Structures are given as C-alpha cells and as structure tokens.
C-alpha cells in the first residue's frame, strides 16, 4: 500500500569513475532525501539512466534502497521496456525482490496506438499486485495517455496514480474533475511544480530534488499548509535550476548540481558524457549563482495541512 502524495524524487543513478554502481554515494543521497522529508523514491527512471542499466544493477539498486530506507518510505521502480513480455518480467522481478510500487512508461521505441498502449499497461498491472503510477509524457515519449485511456486503465485496481508531464497544467484539473479520488495526480515537470500543487496536485515527481531535497520538500509542505507566498519565494530562487530539468541533458545538469551540494558525482554512463565547453560553463554558472543566493528555509516540517 502506497500513500500517493508528496515529493517523490526520480533519483539519479550514481556511478564510480570506472562505471560501476557507486552505492556509497547512492546511500548518501538517499539519506539526504529522507532527512529532507521526501515521501518516496523512484529508481530507474529517465534521470536514473534506466536504458543503460543491466538487470542485475536494477536489482542491486532496489535491494540497497530498501536496506537504506528501512520501510520508512516506499521504494518504487520505473519500467521502460520495448516489449510487453519484457515489462511483465521486470515488474514481477521487482515485486519479488521487494519493490513496493511501479511507475510505468509506454512501450519504448514503438509508437503504440491508444488501444495497444492500454493493453500494454493492463498486461503489466494484471501481472503484479504492486500499486502503479502511469507516466504520461507525450512530449518526450510521443504517446499521450488520454482521459478516456485512463478510464479504461482504472479498471485495474492497482493503477492508482499518474505522473502528469504533458506540460499542459490544466490537465491536472481535467484529471481530477474526471476521476476525483480514484486517481492521484502528480506533476512531473519541475518548472510547473508549485503551480500544479497550488491547483491541487497530490504530489511532485521531481528532478532537481536530487540535488536540493530540502528546498523541494519545503515548497510542497508550504503549499499544502496554505503558505503560498513563502513557497513562492523559494520557487523564484529555484526556477533557473528547475529549468535544467527540461533538457535532453537533464542527467548531466542535475548531476553537476548534486556535486555542488555534496550529494552526488558527475559520472554518467556512455553514450551520455559530462557536459563540455560553453554549455558546461552556462550550467555551472546557473548552479553557482543559485548556491551563492541559496535561501534560508522556514521551518517546513510538521506544518498543518490546509489542503
């Protein structure tokens, strides 16, 4: 059982300089997330460089995360596969090794029809008892999960949440108007984080949280407590950093930010390579400017929610 609400980081995967999993830095980052008050963690997403991970590495990440969080927050694994058979196998294995939830992307590399996409998601959902979040990101993955498709998907009781990344913020309201409490809605776009929460999103699957967990959770908790102006002040400072998330190089960008805050390294897995030249200077300038003006956060833990 997952309480689908709050800030859930799409964690980066930490690598050593010789391209092995860096479990020591992974643990340091997860502990920083928990200290800040995140409500769950998601492994093996786009930010987690999922397409480059071997099955045994995904298993290691799940088991390591479970040992770190000790049941305090749920560990969710993303599924991004090319075949239904492969996706079902990943889902079943994730459940076997202890993952507590799944986030599902549409089929990779094939632009499935609406009918095929629904059939794909249902096949995975029916193969496992784990609770599921559907990831709706037509901008990057070219397949949109429409309201009518979502209606069909909710026939599966374990499909319970959606990561809404269409970039159309009004879709948060459309989803809630249509489905009410039947579906929990998370924003999946960092630069629409505060706005989505203000209009009623249940949570935020965030990216820059990997480097700035406290600032991200503070925005969520302040909004839920009705302290919009305080949340907005942090968000205005945060925006140049949040824009680093909406880029093909989001992994490199966010890993550079993790270096600045001491909870990550710059190591990525090829074909990704560390940023070079003018683009590297630009991103570092954004990070350095933010670090020089990092706000003092109000006491955001244990606020009384008014939402």
Automatic annotation (TrEMBL):
InterPro entries: Aldolase_TIM, DapA-like
Keywords: Lyase
Listed SMART domains: DHDPS
Active-site residue numbers: 135, 163
Keyword Iron annotated: no
A GO molecular function held by the record: N-acetylneuraminate lyase activity
Keyword Lyase recorded: yes
GO cellular component: cytosol
Residues binding pyruvate: 205
BP-aspect Gene Ontology terms: N-acetylneuraminate catabolic process
Matching PANTHER family: N-ACETYLNEURAMINATE LYASE (PTHR42849:SF1)
Family: Belongs to the DapA family.
The protein's name in its UniProt record: Dihydrodipicolinate synthase family protein
